[in-house]
Specification:
By secondary structure, this protein is α+β, with helices and mostly antiparallel strands. Among the domains are: 137 residues, Gyrase A, domain 2, CATH 3.30.1360; 119 residues, Elongation Factor Tu (Ef-tu), domain 3. The chain is globular and about 65 Å long. The termini are far apart. Bound molecules: (6S)-5,6,7,8-tetrahydrofolate (THG).
């Protein structure tokens, strides 16, 4: 089997040596970095996340920083969500769109200071986009990628672990709120956030040379609660309806198709990129929507690496964009991006490499009933 050639194109996270020592068994590229994809025991990793506490190297969620007098203006131009009431120390989930209203990234936006914003990005190059828009619009703002690397602590016991490290005040942080902290001289921000619905925190490490130190502090502090390594978990995130940009979206997907309506404000200023297209789409109504797919039978496993046709009466009605074994439902499940003529309860066939799997459309989040 070929290995990955030495390259600076695939950057190592500050936590890379730690996750390798802790048994990472796979890696995937994300923002030109390596994101751990598993530690060899999917079921234990799922249980740790949903019943205990799990720590993740998500340094690949890079920050794109807007700094300067026009930072707030540029942030608003890039976001079809009203940011006028945003306060320092509060994050927001936003759907960045292009001029056609297609989602090009779905970051968490952190207002770090009145003249400083971070887009904590999914897997596409928003630095290039933001700096080009800033130049074209003649804005006085510097766009950069600072040395900031998130480490996530997720699960029902996460608050106990994080409170034991930083103090009880962390329990009062609202969702997506964040605050500066110092840990044995390691500068970081503590945020209530993370890509799971189990509750949790993210530490934005602001000095890449201290990755192993931070990893070890969290690992030691979490020992009484049985903390262990993990990573963004396909079962948990699909069961609970979290979107994976680029996995569940394509070059035509708009926010209304994938349940992000509530993060779009149609009355933002006219200079916001994509707002004209989004107003038109909202008026006409989207042609696709995202529903769950519950599959019959255990095999063949749906896969994470390819979309599959969803067919009704011999006609393609959409795609299954991601699929996974659900430990909660004990069924294979996936996300369907299907025609708005399809509804919850409809029986469908998922076509995979010549196989036909029977399934039924369901609500998202999935319910066990
Ligand atoms: N943390 C940080 N950066 C990130 C992610 C993260 N960048 C990439 C990716 N993940 C961004 N995508 C999401 C998607 C959903 C959520 C967070 C990041 C999320 N959504 C909740 C929901 O949809 O129910 C809450 C949204 C809300 O109510 O505002 O949490 O994980 N740093």
């Amino acid at each position: 089997m070929a290995t990955i050639a030495p390259t600076t194109r695939l950057r190592k996270s500050p936590f890379y040596d730690s996750v390798m020592a802790d048994g990472a068994t796979s890696m995937m590229p994300y923002n030109q970095m390596m994101l751990p994809g598993g530690f060899g025991d999917p079921e234990s990793e799922y249980r740790r996340l949903t019943e205990g506490v799990s720590m993740w190297d998500v340094a690949c969620e890079r920050q794109i920083q807007l700094q300067g007098p026009d930072a707030a203006r540029l942030a608003q131009i890039l976001c079809p969500r009203d940011l006028s009431k945003n306060v320092v120390g509060q994050g927001r989930y936003v759907a960045l769109c292009n001029h056609r209203g297609t989602i090009i990234n779905d970051p968490v936006l952190l207002k770090v200071a009145d003249d400083c914003y971070w887009f904590s990005i999914a897997d596409s190059d928003i630095g290039l986009w933001a700096s080009s828009i800033a130049a074209e619009r003649g804005l006085d703002v510097e766009v950069s990628e600072p040395d900031v690397s998130p480490l996530a602590v997720q699960g029902p016991k996460a608050a106990d672990v994080v409170a034991s490290i930083f103090g009880e005040w962390v329990r009062d942080l609202k969702y997506f709120a964040f605050a500066d902290a110092d840990l044995d001289g390691i500068a970081l921000k503590v945020a209530r956030s993370g890509w799971s619905k189990q509750g949790g925190f993210e530490f934005y490490l602001m000095d890449g040379s201290r990755g192993a130190d931070l990893w070890n502090i969290v690992k030691e502090a979490g020992r009484p609660w049985g903390i262990g390594p993990g990573c963004p978990n396909p079962s948990e995130r699909i069961e609970n309806g979290l979107l994976s940009w680029g996995g569940d979206t394509d070059v035509h997907t708009n926010p209304f198709e994938v349940r992000l309506d509530r993060f779009v404000d149609l009355d933002v200023p006219d200079d916001v990129i994509g707002i004209h297209a989004l107003r038109r789409i909202a008026l006409e109504g989207p042609t696709r929507h995202q529903l769950g797919v519950v599959l019959d039978g255990d095999l063949p496993q749906p896969s994470h690496d390819q979309w599959y046709d969803i067919v009704v009466h011999g006609t393609k009605v959409g795609d299954m964009t991601n699929g996974t074994w659900s430990f909660k439902l004990e069924r294979n499940i996936g996300f369907g991006l299907v025609s708005v003529n399809c509804n919850v309860g409809d029986h469908v066939q998922v076509h995979k490499s010549g196989n036909v799997i029977q399934g039924q459309l369901s609500p998202i989040p999935f319910t066990t009933a």
